[in-house]
Amino acid sequence: MRAVVLLSGGLDSYTAAAAARREGYELFALTVSYGQTHVRELESARAVAKALCVTRHIELEVDLAGFGGSSLVGEGAVPVDRAELDGQTHTDAGEIPTTYVPARNTIFLSLALAWAEVTGSEAIVIGVNALDYSGYPDCRPEYLDAFARLAALATRAGVEGRPLRVLAPLLHLSKAEIIRLGGDLDLDYGLTHSCYAPTPEGRPCRHCDSCRLRAKGFAEAGLEDPTGQ
Question: Which backbone phi and psi does 3 adopt, to 5 degrees?
């Protein structure tokens, strides 16, 4: 079995890829450089791909910064210490933060879908999570179901009766559960990077949504983050 995994360099995509590998999938890793200001994660993606022993790792440049519309591509400041993440899960908060990149997962999944057809892959793996995340609309189960239907309609594989599966093994796990799963898979989270607004030296800011959710996950899992994030 083959699968294309969307690999960002964060702990979620690393864990999702490793879970797919345990299920017997040969991995083809796709990392997208989309004009994000936190390019430090690209270095982590390379390290993670090596650790996973993927068959091939492709880095594509798709400059979404040209569109703007997100603090992750330099339009405005990355929000820090958001009250919406204090004492409640993201789903309790109705606001979609400025770190949402318009249509990002749709674009990434479409690229993965194209490569999956070329490699003869049966699945696409994505590390989205619908519990401990920042409230993005393209991380919801209904979104993934809709994309899977689109993939079945829009590809030769789907028309020939071989629709690709969209695998999101972390979808219903908390961040702590994801980290515990990574422990079971013997993953080195010291290779990963999660911060949206790292220092010039590449150190995590500790105040953005991603840093805070990561810290919360390690604390609830009763483990120490090897990166110090």
Answer: -145, 145
Contact between 127 and 6 under an 8 Å Cβ cutoff? The reply is yes
pTM of the full structure: 0.93
> Which residues are CB-contacts of 186 (< 8 A; sequence separation ≥ 6)?
none
- What is the domain range of residue 200? 2-221
**Cβ-count burial 114-151 (b if 16+ within 10 Å, e if not):** ebbbeeebbbbbbbbbbbbbbbbebbbeebbeebbebb
Residue 228 falls within a domain, yes or no? no
Across the chain, which distance is largest between two alpha carbons, in Å?
Answer: 50
- What mean pLDDT do residues 141-153 have? 95
Long-range contacts of 92-96 (CB under 8 A, 24+ apart): 93/135, 95/135, 96/135, 96/136, 96/137
pLDDT band at 200, cuts 50/70/90?
confident
